[in-house]
Structures are given as C-alpha cells and as structure tokens.
Amino acid sequence: GEALEVNQEVNCVTDFIHGCEDQLQKLKKQKEKGLLYGIPISIKDHINCKGHISSGGMVKFLGQVKEEDSVVVQVLKHQGGIPFVKTNIPQTMINYDCSNPIFGQTLNPLNPQKSPGGSSGGEGALIAGGGSILGIGSDVAGSIRLPCSFCGLCGLKPTGNRISKQGVVSPLIGMQSVTGMLGPMARDVDSLALCMKALLCQEMFQLDPTVPPIPFNEQVRLRGAPM
C-alpha cells in the first residue's frame, strides 16, 4: 500500500512482482527462518525476476520476459526476503537522472522539483518515500551512491565480484576495467550490513561459483573498515 502511494507521487515503480503472498505463506511453513525473513525487498529494474521484464529503460528489451530469477533474487528468497516491486532507472542506466521513454521520469520524494539521482533512482525514491525498507540497486560509477546522497539514504557499492551478477541485464558488455556491482540501499547502515550478511551465504556461492566464497566479516564492520 505504501509503495503504491509513493509511486503515485514520484513514479518510481515499474512493476509489482506477483506471487508475494504465496511466497509469504510458504515461508511461514518453513522451520528455518532466514536472516531476511518476511522483509519486503524492492529490486532495481535490470535485475531479473521470473515472469517479468528487465528493461534497462530500453524498448528493445520489452518483449523479453525472464524465465528465472537472478541469483541475487534467488538468494534473497532463500533468506526469507520477499521481492515485491521492480523500480525505475534511466534509459541504458548510464545516467545520473532517472527517466526513460517507457516509464517516464521519477521524482525525488523530498523535493518533487528535483531528481532522485541515478541510475538506481527508483530505489532511492521508493525507500526515501517510505515505500520500501530495503532495496537492491547497482553501481558502476555512482548508481547506488548518487541516489542515496540525493535521497538521504545509506547505500553500499561492494567490492567488485563480491555479489553474483548472474541474471542481470546490462546494456554494456565486456566492460572489465571498472566493475559494476549490485548492492543494498536502505535508511541505515545496520540494514545494509544485515543484507550483505544474508547475501554472502553458501546458497550464493553454490549458485554462482565465480563469486569468491568469503562470508561476511562482522569484525571488519565493527572496526569501521570498509565492508
């Protein structure tokens, strides 16, 4: 409900992920409760969710309904999280604003005359507007950090290759010099740490063997060093 209201004001959601209710019922029956049990999580547009498109803000991707969840979405579900919406991005995602010809312009909920930043602008706007408490964005050159800065949030661009990018649409292929990374966005640092801890689990290391199997280090975080 909150997400719908925020979306009406700032146009940040591109799609609602179906099957949320069923997933919650299934989770309730499980003995093992994951680290993200019952938490609704918003997902940036270009991260694949089964049965939905990953547009990247580009018309050419509109017909391609994804047949399976990206690894990151599989792991979030494994940890009890509930991906519930997909959020807006700029066309091609290589932009500091958040607008494309398909879904239009996303506004900043703190000031609708301003941009929420990009490219994870839909995430920034939705979380800042109170429509989500945890989101997954992505960042090459500021795409998590800029919206977090513009919207007064916390975000993390993890070290390159720390989190699986399998099942994520990119308009650029073969860019090796600067690695884009998926990462969490939320209102506080504790939420980012919980999300990283949840993602860096055996499930992810098994689903994507190219990711180094290094679990989350609580000691490093408490020392205040980079995560």
Automatic annotation (TrEMBL):
- Species of origin: Pycnonotus jocosus (Red-whiskered bulbul)
Q: Which UniProt keywords apply?
A: Hydrolase
What Pfam families does the annotation carry? Answer: Amidase (PF01425)
User: What Gene Ontology terms for biological process does this UniProt record contain?
Assistant: fatty acid catabolic process
What domain of life does the native source organism fall in? Eukaryota
Concerning its family, UniProt says: Belongs to the amidase family.
How is this protein named in the record? VDHAP protein
Report domain Amidase positions: 5-213
Record GO terms (molecular function): amidase activity; fatty acid amide hydrolase activity
